Amino acid sequence: MTAIQEAAPQSGSSSSLYAWYVVIVLMLAQTCSFIDRMIMGLLVGPIRESFNITDTQYSLLAGLAFAAFYAIMGLPLARIADSKSRRGLIAIGISFWSVMTAMCGLANSFWTLFLARVGVGVGEASLSPAAYSLITDYFPKKSLARALSVYTIGITIGSGLAYLIGGKVVAFALEIGEIVLPIVGSTEGWQLTFFLVGLPGIAIALLMLTVKEPPRKGRLVLEEDTGATTPAAGVPLREVAAFFLARRGAFASHILGLTIYVMVVFSLNIWGPEYLMRTFGMERADAGVSFGILMIVTGTAGLLTGGALADRWFNKGILDGYSRVIVLSMGGMLPFALALAIAPTAAIGLACLGIATFFAAFQGGIAGGVIQLMTPNQMRGQAVALYFLVANLLGMGLGPTAIAALTDYVFKDDAALNKSLALGAAILVPLGAIVLISGIGRVREAIAQAQAWD
User: Fold this and answer.
1) Are 397 and 64 a contacting pair, CB within 8 Å?
2) How far apart (Å, rounded) are the C-alpha atoms in residues 454 and 215?
3) Arithmetic mean of pLDDT over the chain
4) Is 56 exposed, middle or buried (0-12, 13-18, 19+ CB in 10 A)?
């Protein structure tokens, strides 16, 4: 019979200068991934026109094509991250998704673009489970939230750069008309955008090879029938399942509550530029630049604020401090998301988007941090992958589509996107908060049990 026991803690790297270097490299990888992921938010009009598709069909390209395979591939790749080289896995993943992003620029139909987006999702599934595991081994718990939040800054910077770069490229392409590239041939502006944002990721993959694998902390050991106790390089799936089932209340409430919430967060990210164009008549390039700057400034500020607050509460002995910050994120974001429906000018609309993004970003780094705090080392990648499976499959896969469906089938007017965003937030944010709050006590108990592993 095999049993799982806590291993004696191993000494790992502290939050030294090199540890922060690792976080910066991982942040660059995250930035690269979100540029490739979020560029779709600026290309709604050109791609819809090229393929003659609706908002709902476009949302499948921007959301489900990516999110479904990102989620499905997350668990098997996380199994590798929990027992093999996390550095190597991330480097290969960056190379793959960068090439697939460039391949999006070769798409000549809805389905070829759909398949290329699937490839982007498969590649990006390698990053976060391995990155969260690496960072948790490099940093003590007293500064873990800040380290994870700095890593997650890649989301806001990447999303912002996607809109900034995309806006400039699309504006340039519209000015010069058809573009003819060597080998590729005649290319539309939106296709050129994918080439420009995809291929530079190869340089990040090479930089990832400078990262060292840290010793794994908080490991479990397997005790075999012989009585010998040995380090477990990879915990069997049945033991992983047993661990999660024993703490299902904590994991289920946290993951489901966050998933419902991020349906709104992803929707704001995907539809933000289009909201500015449809509601206030902004030009595509101007909307991209404005929303890009907004994402970088307010999103980054929100991530750092949320991480610092979570560390402060946790270090005061408030074991559910991370979860409390997430609830604060929900409460702060909701009124400004609702205000999108009635904002009378572009300036006020941008202000509402900015403040909503600031509060929404609180949860970015610490949502996965809660999972890390509840989980032993050899399951951390799989635990984060489970969270991302649900959050991305439902949050990113269905969130933007739900907003598109409200626009297409409830309001039946492209110009009503502002109302769709507000209505979606009014329903989903309170529901997510109720589910999350219902399990905070169980999360607190699970974190308390995990303290013995470190």
Assistant:
1) yes
2) 13
3) 84
4) middle
Helix or strand holding residue 165 (H, E) = helix 144-176
Q: Which has the higher per-residue pLDDT, 348 or 400?
A: 348
Report the length, in residues, of the chain. Answer: 454
If DSSP codes are grouped into helix, strand and coil, which group holds residue 199?
Answer: coil
Distances (CA, A) of 264 to 270, 358, 375, 424: 10, 14, 27, 7
Asked if the model's pLDDT at residue 230 lies above 80, the reply is no
**What pTM was estimated for this model as a whole?**
0.77
Q: How many CA atoms lie within 13 A of 282 on its CB side?
A: 23
Distances (CA, A) of 391 to 27, 256, 337, 366: 20, 8, 20, 14
CA 409 to chain centre: 28
- How many other CB atoms sit within 10 Å of the CB of residue 16? 11
Domain ranges of the chain: 10-453
Q: What is the pLDDT of residues 102-145, one digit of tens each?
A: 898 888 888 999 999 988 988 888 998 899 889 988 988 888 88
The type of residue at 305 is: T
CATH of domain 10-453: 1.20.1250.20
In 80-214 the beta strands, taken as DSSP E runs, fall at: 179-181, 185-187
The tokens 């399951």 sit on which residue? Answer: 379
Coil/strand/helix, residue 187 = strand
Tokens standing for residue 392:
């991305």
Q: Which own/partner contact pairs does 253-256 have at CB distance under 8 Å and 24+ positions apart?
A: 253/435, 253/436, 253/438, 253/439, 253/440, 253/442, 253/443, 254/323, 254/370, 254/371, 254/387, 254/436, 254/439, 254/443, 255/371, 255/386, 255/387, 255/390, 255/391, 256/390, 256/435
